[in-house]
Each structure stands twice: as structure tokens, then as C-alpha cells.
Design a protein that fits this description.
This protein is an all-beta fold. It folds into 2 domains: 144 residues, Galactose-binding domain-like (Jelly Rolls), CATH 2.60.120.260; 83 residues, Immunoglobulin-like (Sandwich). It is built from no helices and 20 strands. Strands 2-4-11-8-9 form a 5-stranded antiparallel sheet, with no helix packed on it. The protein is rod-shaped and about 90 Å long.
């Protein structure tokens, strides 16, 4: 999976309290210089948050935090929870985790999140430094870069058929991130599209169709992944449709 650069810019950092001079903004100033860290204190638990101007929303799916040495002690986070909100009142828990008791190390957390929020907040349950202080050198948040599925293979199936008889056609497509996909068939006869159920990335999907009138029809397919992004159209399979056989009986003359 691919991710954007850090999205913590253009907004405002805040906290529940901090030691003099070590304010919330130092955790997202893109500086790893000595002394440029956020020092949450004395609230327990401490919290650190960030919000953007009204109308700006971010679908964060990756969090990075860098620990730091303070007074000869490592300050890894003993536990934390990431929340999101769009009204400042109703918070949704997105992820909970811990860090190791190490210093000067980036810790990365990747998680599912299908909502874009205007505000994110990290609630800390303390650090290895002690039970009431939270010390973080840098915090970064990223959105996932989501790509559409690859173009499906050319439809496979009978290219010479007769009217009124259902025939099955199949295809396959992969998604760059391995997401599930479904397929949409265009039969080229004006009858509309047929959508399949979900398939694993790369799995063959199929749909059946009976052509109502003789003619030459261009069958094509596109894929849609679980994020709602669609691929380009596949190459065309030309299907020649002939009239179906008619039943009849001979009537004798008397």
C-alpha cells in the first residue's frame, strides 16, 4: 500500500496540558532537533490532537510517532488510542496500540478507517518515562493513496451464439492493493449492465446473458474495487448472434 506525505499541516495542534515551553505544535513541526518535542503534563491521561479549518477532512490510515530520550530515560508510549470526530463531540475510536520502551525510533501503525475526519485526537495512558508525563518527539499522520483495479482481461466466452440462449462470459482483474473487486458487463445490445458479486483480487468472475435479436455485439467489462474505484474498460469481445432455430411441423394434405 502507498501513503501520502504527512497531512499534519495547515491546521492547529492542541493538547490537554504541557510542560512550560513544550507545547503541542512541537510534535508536528517536522523537526527532530534536541528539545523540539511535546511534553504532555500533568494530566493523566494526556491527550494530543490536531484539527483543520472547517471543510477540510482527512481519511487517515497511518500514524507515525517518534520517541525520544529525556533525562537519560526512554519515553516510549505505554499505551494510546486514536479517535476522530467531525463535530468535536462525538468521537469514534479508530485504533489503539503501544510502543516499545525505546528511544529515537519511529513507530508506525496502519489501520482501517473509512471516514474522513476534520479532527483527530490521541489519548495517551502514560509512558515508560513515568505515569503522568507523555513525551513525543514527532507525530505524523498519512492518508492512503488508493489506486483503481487494473483493466480486466478480454471477456472469454462463445463468440457465435443464437438468440434466446444464455451464455456465460468471464474475466479477471487484479487490484494493486489486493482489494476485492466486482465486475460490470456491458453486453453492447442496449439491455443495460450486469454486475457480479465480489471476488478476490485476480479471481475469475462471470456473468450470463441471452441476446434477444440477431446482430454483432461488442461485449466489454470493467472492475470496481472495495473503495469504489473503477478500472478502464477491457478489450472488446465481438459476439455474432444468429436467429435461434424455430420449431415447426408438417401438415399433410388430404
Amino acid at each position: 500500500m502507498a501513503y501520502t506525505a504527512d497531512v499534519l499541516e495547515g491546521g492547529t495542534a492542541y493538547d490537554s496540558g504541557h510542560y512550560s515551553g513544550y507545547h503541542a505544535g512541537l510534535a508536528c513541526d517536522n523537526s527532530e532537533a534536541a528539545g523540539s518535542y511535546w511534553y504532555g503534563y500533568p494530566n493523566n491521561p494526556n491527550c494530543w490532537g490536531y484539527y483543520w479549518p472547517a471543510g477540510t477532512y482527512k481519511m487517515v490510515r497511518k500514524l507515525r510517532m517518534r520517541s525520544v530520550w529525556v533525562g537519560g530515560n526512554a519515553s516510549g508510549i505505554a499505551g494510546f488510542s486514536l479517535y476522530g470526530t467531525n463535530d468535536g463531540t462525538n468521537w469514534t475510536l479508530i485504533y489503539s496500540g503501544t510502543q516499545g520502551n525505546n528511544a529515537n525510533i519511529w513507530y508506525e501503525y496502519i489501520f482501517a478507517n473509512n471516514t474522513a475526519y476534520n479532527r483527530y485526537q490521541i489519548n495517551f495512558s502514560g509512558s515508560y518515562y513515568d505515569s503522568i508525563r507523555t513525551i513525543v518527539l514527532e507525530i505524523e499522520m498519512m492518508e492512503e493513496i488508493i489506486y483503481p483495479p487494473n483493466t480486466p482481461s478480454t471477456p472469454s466466452g462463445n463468440s457465435s451464439v443464437v438468440t434466446g440462449v444464455s451464455n456465460s462470459y468471464s474475466t479477471a482483474a487484479t487490484d494493486p492493493a489486493g482489494r476485492n473487486v466486482y465486475y460490470v458487463f456491458d453486453w453492447g445490445d442496449g439491455s443495460g449492465y450486469t454486475s457480479t458479486g465480489w471476488y478476490a483480487s485476480g479471481a475469475t468472475g462471470s456473468a450470463s446473458h441471452a441476446f434477444a435479436a440477431p446482430g454483432s455485439y461488442s461485449v466489454r467489462i470493467y472492475a470496481v474495487n472495495s473503495e469504489g474505484l473503477g478500472s478502464g474498460w477491457s478489450n472488446i469481445l465481438t459476439v455474432i448472434v444468429a436467429s435461434g432455430s424455430s420449431s415447426f411441423r408438417l401438415v399433410g394434405l388430404c
